[in-house]
Amino acid sequence: MSNPPKLRNDCFALPPGVHWTPVDEALAHLRQGMTVVTGIEPVPTVAAGGRVLAAEVQANRANPPYANSAVDGYGFAHAALGDGAHSLPLIDGRAAAGMPFDGLVPTGSAIRILTGAMLPKGVDTVVLEEDTAVANGHVSFERGLKKNANTRPIGEDVTDGEALLCEGHILRPQDLALLSAVGVETVQVRKPLRVGVLSTGDEIRELGTPVAPHQIYDANRPMLLDLIHNWGMEAFDLGHITDDAARVHATLTDGATRCDAILTSGGASAGDEDHISAALRNTGTHNLWRIAVKPGRPLALGLWDGVPVFGLPGNPVAAFVCTLIFARPALMTLSGAGWRTPRAMTVPAAFAKNKKPGRREYLRARLNADGHAEVFKSEGSGRISGLSWAAGLVELEDGARDIKPGDSVMYYPFAEFGV
């Protein structure tokens, strides 16, 4: 099947005259410009974990595929029961899972039956073994058992042909169990989104290489590559390059031949050494989004040979937050999984803060033993240790707010971002 068309050149365009864009407006514009860019392929169900469904899936078979016993016990026809205690003669044979009884159980008689066994002809009710007494070839039990007790009807869980999972669903282990149970051997899924990750900056060095006092190790690329992997996408390491316009141009060109989207860190603002922004300006698709968010603010967005490029801040904390808030839902849409909005928990604050108006803030946070949100000791965006310390983010709205311990705040566990 052919691949979908690429994005439009104006997919990242903001309305003219906008200087500081609120987070909600930025997300709305981003969502409007994104569309699926991945193709479709058939994959065996057993190998489809983590893949995005490209079409609705229906059951090929009911589950259970036959009426069966829910317990170990004795099966019989309920119509044979009288008003008092019951005693039914047992016929020879038994019914077990995978070993059905082929004959007919006469009305007024009972048969030994085990959990999961197909109900034999003539059986519509099962009495639990622990509620019976067996002697002299008869099974005895008290009155009060209802018709169809301790049985599972055909299709109790899923009926034949029933719609199970919708397009855009990301297949989980439990989904593979469901699809396998109803005979779905192959599913139509989206090809994995291919995402390139590039670090820029003269100050950056690779782990394992000599580092001078004025240089730092690359923290962004390992973080971003692993995020992409966690989201079920194919991560391409485009490496690290220095602040050199020619190398930026060559690396983006190479990345665009192999990737459906590219994440860069560093060089995304408007300074002398911000070569990602400069390169995108040369393509005529550059959009520098100044977002009213902390940490973060500048995002350089554009297309390179038709491939979307997300220019993230160079600071690891800002790069991490901007990737979760902005890049992740966009990448999910490109992958065919659809725009994903994280769900927040409303929890009491375990901190105090006087927030000024004008920007939305995301604080590194985690829940304490009482279920209250505590925040990292410093809001400094250079404090990478706070990302490792945290288990989520507290979101503070755009306006001013004086937060005291016990006040309600919005907390997003990292799990809501697939982390």
Question: Which features characterize this protein?
Answer:
419 residues, alpha+beta, Molybdenum Cofactor Biosythetic Enzyme, Chain A, Molybdopterin biosynthesis moea protein, domain 2, Molybdopterin biosynthesis moeA protein, domain 3, 4 domains, six-stranded mixed beta sheet, 7 helices, 28 strands
What this model shows, in words?
The mean pLDDT is 92. This protein starts with 22 loop residues before the first helix and ends in a 6-residue tail after the last strand. The chain is 19% helix and 29% strand. The protein has 419 residues and is an alpha+beta fold. The protein has seven helices and 28 strands. A six-stranded mixed beta sheet has the order 7-4-6-5-9-8, with no helix packed on it. The longest helix is centred in the last third of the chain and has 20 residues, at 316-335.
Helix content: 10-25%
* Low-pLDDT sequence parts: none
CATH topology of the largest domain: Molybdenum Cofactor Biosythetic Enzyme, Chain A
- Radius of gyration, rounded? 30 Å
Assembly state:
single chain
CATH superfamily name of the largest domain? MoaB/Mog-like domain
Strand content: 25-35%
Alpha carbon gap, first and last residue: 32 Å
**pLDDT averaged over residues:** 92
- Dominant shape: elongated
Please report the first level of CATH classification, the CATH class of the largest domain. Answer: Alpha Beta
Instruction: Give the total of beta strands.
Output: 28
CATH architecture of the largest domain: 3-Layer(aba) Sandwich
- The biggest beta sheet, please? 6 strands, mixed
Order of strands, widest sheet: 7-4-6-5-9-8
Domain tally: 4
